[in-house]
Amino acid sequence: MSSHFAANPEADVDDTDMSGNVCLANAQIVLPDRVMYGRVTAIDGVITEIVEGDYVPTGAVDCEGDYVLPGLVELHTDNLERHIEPRPEVDWPHLAALIAHDGELASTGITTVFDALRVGSIHGGKARYDAYARNLANELLEARAAGLFRISHFLHLRAEICSETLLEEMALFGPEDRVGIVSLMDHTPGQRQFRDLSALKTYVAKKRGLNDAEFDEHVANLKELHRKNGARHEAGAVAEAARYGAVLASHDDTTAEQVQTSLVNGVRFGEFPTTVEAAQACRERGISVMMGAPNIIRGGSHSGNVSALELAKADLLDIVSSDYVPAALLLSAFALADVWQDLPRAIACVTHNPAKAGGLKDRGQVKAGKRGDLLRVRLHGKTPLIRGVWSKGARVG
C-alpha cells in the first residue's frame, strides 16, 4: 500500500480505486468560477472534456438540466465510529460496519473521506475509552486493498491530548497507513468545546450514563491527565504527524492565543473554532476555518459555540465537514449558496477547499485532468437531491 504523504503532502496521491468512463450531458455544471450549461466527460477515471451546450451524445447520461458538481470531500466525520458502536458498549462486526459506512457516504455524494479514528485512551472508570484505532485501520486498509469500497478512504487520527496512551497508540502508525490528517484534540473540561461544564455533563451523561458523583470524578481525572500528559502529548502528536507526512489540524480553538499555538505547531486548518475571535485569528494567520454542516443546518452549535452561519456572513468560513450527519454536507453547501448568492463558492467549501487542505491536488473541481468524482444533483425546492454519484468515473450511487 503506497502513500505519497510522507514525501510531499501536496503531491497527487497514488490511488488504486476502481475507475470508469462517463459522460454527463445537458447539465448545469458547477465550475470553479461559474455555472455552465454543458457536458463533462471522464475517461479511465479522469475528466477529459468539458463542453458548453445542450447536446447529448449517444451513450451519455441526459441530466435533464440537473446540476453536475465535484464529488464531496469529507475531512472529519464520526460516522465510522457510529457504525462500529451503534449504541454504547455494542461492538458491531467491523467489516460490515465499514461497508455500511462506505455505502452511506457514497449515497450522500461524498467520494473522498478522511475517516476519523480516535487515538489516546482512558482505561479506568465508567467513562473509559479503550484503544481501537490500529486494529480498525488494519481492517479498513485490508478492505480497501480488496476493492470492497465505493469511494476513496484515508485516515484521520484524532489525537486525544487528555488521555493515558496517546503516544503509544500513535507509534503503531507509519507513512504507509494513508494517515492524511492528525488533529490535536484537547477535551480537558473547562475550556475549548466544553468551557460550559453543563454541556459536557449532558453529553457524557447521555453517552456513558454517569451520575453526578461519577461525572465529577470523570472531570477531575481528565484535568489530572492533562496536567501530567498535556504538554508532552501535544508535542509528541505534532512530531508523529510529521513522521507520517500528514496534515496537522487543530480542534476547537477558542482564543487568539490558542490559534497562535496552532500556527507554531504547523496547523493547516482549524476544525470548529468556538468563537469569532478564534476564527478571525485563523484568517489572519493563514489557517483555513472548518465548521460543521449540522451547525449550518440547525442554525447554531449544539454546544452553544459560535454559529457557522455567523462566520459565513463574516467571510470567516472556508471548509465544511459533515461531522456527525453525512447527508448534511450537500445540504449545507446549498444553504451557503443562499447566504452568499454564489453557488461555486459554496460548493468549493465541500470539494476543492477540503481537498486542498487535506493535501490532495487531484480532485475537488470539475476541471480537465482532475479525478472523475462527479455528482448529479436536482433541487426540489431548496433541498438538493442526489440523482447519481461517480467515483473516478465509475457509478457508485
Automatic annotation (TrEMBL):
Gene3D superfamilies: Urease, subunit C, domain 1
GO biological process, any: organic phosphonate catabolic process
One annotated GO molecular function: hydrolase activity, acting on carbon-nitrogen (but not peptide) bonds
InterPro entries: Metal-dep_hydrolase_composite (IPR011059), Metal_Hydrolase (IPR032466), Metallo-dep_Hydrolase (IPR051781), PhnM (IPR012696)
E.C. number(s) listed in UniProt: 3.6.1.63
PANTHER family assigned: ALPHA-D-RIBOSE 1-METHYLPHOSPHONATE 5-TRIPHOSPHATE DIPHOSPHATASE (PTHR43135:SF3)
Keyword Metal-binding: no
Protein name as annotated: Alpha-D-ribose 1-methylphosphonate 5-triphosphate diphosphatase
KW Iron-sulfur (keyword) present: no
SUPFAM superfamilies linked: Composite domain of metallo-dependent hydrolases, Metallo-dependent hydrolases
Record keywords, A-Z: Hydrolase
